């Protein structure tokens, strides 16, 4: 709590799509270890969300995005900590996927959007469902 007001964590998550497939990483040494999640992370103090998406994508996968389009907002109240999860669609993506943070991610794989693994990171389930059902906001 800051100045008597509740504080919320803001997650900036990136959808990278190629040929009908979505990029997911198998989480390691963090919340949701062993589950599959989107590239992304926490918004830093004073940081623009688009810049956070571009930064996180590069830090985690080595991919460079020329643009980020806002696509989803999820008010995720079903975790131990209240999160505001945002989803961005990466555009003009260049490079090859690398395992840039092997201490946080076991591997990156492309999955058919209609055949996703069952073990999705709890913080990304609603975001991915929103993408599939074309919803902008989930409360």
UniProtKB/TrEMBL annotation:
CDD domains: NUDIX_MTH2_Nudt15. PROSITE patterns: NUDIX. Residues 7-134 form the Nudix hydrolase domain. InterPro entries: Nudix_hydrolase, NUDIX_hydrolase-like_dom_sf, NUDIX_hydrolase_dom. SUPFAM superfamilies: Nudix. GO terms for molecular function: hydrolase activity. It comes from the Bacteria. Keywords: Hydrolase. The keyword Glycoprotein does not apply. This is Nudix hydrolase domain-containing protein.
């Amino acid at each position: 709590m800051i100045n008597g007001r509740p504080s919320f964590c803001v997650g900036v998550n990136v959808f990278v799509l190629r040929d009908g497939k979505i990029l997911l990483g198998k989480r390691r040494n963090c919340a949701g270890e062993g589950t599959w999640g989107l590239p992304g992370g926490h918004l830093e103090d004073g940081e623009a969300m688009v810049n956070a998406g571009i930064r996180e994508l590069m830090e985690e996968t080595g991919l460079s995005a020329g643009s980020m389009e806002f696509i989803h907002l999820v008010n995720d109240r079903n975790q131990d900590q209240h999160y505001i999860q945002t989803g961005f669609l990466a555009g003009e993506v260049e490079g090859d996927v690398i395992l840039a943070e092997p201490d946080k991610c076991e591997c990156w794989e492309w999955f058919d959007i209609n055949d996703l693994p069952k073990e999705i990171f709890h913080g990304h389930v609603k975001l991915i469902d929103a993408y599939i059902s074309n919803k902008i906001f989930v409360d």
